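In this supplementary section we document a worked example of the pipeline. Step one takes a protein sequence of length 175 as its only input; no multiple sequence alignment statistics are reported here. Step two produces a three-dimensional model, which step three serialises into structure tokens for compact storage. The input and output of this example are shown verbatim.
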Amino acid sequence: MEETKAIIEAIIFASEAPISVDKIREVLSNVEKTEIARHLQDLVAEYENRWGGFLLQEVAGGFQFRTRPDLSSWMTKLMRGKPAMMSHAAMETLAVIAYKQPVVKSEVDRIRGVDVGSSLKSLLEKKLVRIMGRKDVPGKPIMYGTTKKFLEVFNLKDLSELPTLKELKDLQEGT
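The serialised model returned by step three reads:
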């Protein structure tokens, strides 16, 4: 039992990206999903209660070790500078795509009021946005949506954790 939990912990530690319960079960094929889920919840609680340098969090459809958010200034010092920044235009473009996906470029252009070509290219290169297919209309324009990396970067389990437009408005108004 404790060995299973240790194996799960090692699998998560060795994984380069958030790892799902299903993927863990592929490795531990003799362990039921419910047992894996129970061990994961135990591990999440242990790391939370330990109050160490990192946590085990559910993010982007899987589990991943992450540095505690309140220690980010120390990580910035370690990396010798500021974290990679996105332009204001790229952030606005990403927000439109996140809330409207799947969405075509012309709709993002219309909402933002400017051509988003360079921002879109940058978001694709950063793998925060992906091509989701083509819209079934004349010209068959490309549709865009967010990626698992988007969820990972913004510390979201899934898109339902995005703040609602009302929450954003309340935040802006300071209420």
